[in-house]
Amino acid sequence: IPEMSEYGEDILTLAKPPILAFHDWFTDRTITPHATELRMVSETWELGGTADLIAYVDGNFEIIDFKTGAKNEKNKIQVAAYVKLAKENGMNVSRGRLVHLDRKYSSKGEPQYSEIIIEEDEIDEYFVLFRAAKAIYKKMHKPKRKGKIMPLQDVPNMGEEITPGQYRVKLTAI
Predict the structure, then answer these.
(1) 74: Cα within 13 Å, side-chain hemisphere
(2) In 3-state terms, what secondary structure has residue 169?
(3) By Cβ atoms counted within 10 A, which residue in 34, 43, 98, 132 is the most buried?
(4) Strand ranges (E), 28-105
(5) 70 DSSP 8-state letter
(6) Residue 144 has what pLDDT?
């Protein structure tokens, strides 16, 4: 358990149950960490994210995402996207795991956690939902741009490597 004496009592009161729940979760299984807070990017899927933990958990190479807020089905979609990111970045993860660290103690005064494992055969199903949600978001939140859209070959090179046929916005100075 980390040293927490530098924090105020109010912060400690709020943080202690999920910290202790994490400790219980970690010690209840065999875990060999591979990476923590790993930023990943996919050019193919045009997405990026930061995985909380990539580790061998009881022999399975997994993406683990920790949550302390309300339990939400959409978190499975996020974990599936992280698994896709990891695979594209050369990691042969076999599944995802969502660990909910409860902010409150049980009725017996003990820390609580729950977990959901997203098996490899479920990843594609949840990733389809992710892509659909992303498409809807992009459609509803089109960026407001000023200027002309020009074919790439007509725009001066800005030092970026961009595939021919893509378009870049050229902003006009005011």
Answers:
(1) 7
(2) strand
(3) 98
(4) 31-42, 47-57, 60-67, 95-101
(5) -
(6) 65
What tokens appear for 9 in the block?
A: 């009592």
The tens digit of pLDDT for each residue in 10-20 reads 877 788 889 89
CA distance 147 to 152: 14
pLDDT over 80 at 82, yes or no: yes
Number of Cβ within 10 Å of residue 20's Cβ equals 18
DSSP state of 152: G
Instruction: Give CA–CA dist 8/78, Å, rounded.
Output: 33
Percentage of the chain modeled with pLDDT above 90: 52
Question: How far is residue 131's CA from residue 1's CA, in Å, rounded to a whole number?
Answer: 38
Q: What is the pTM of this model?
A: 0.73
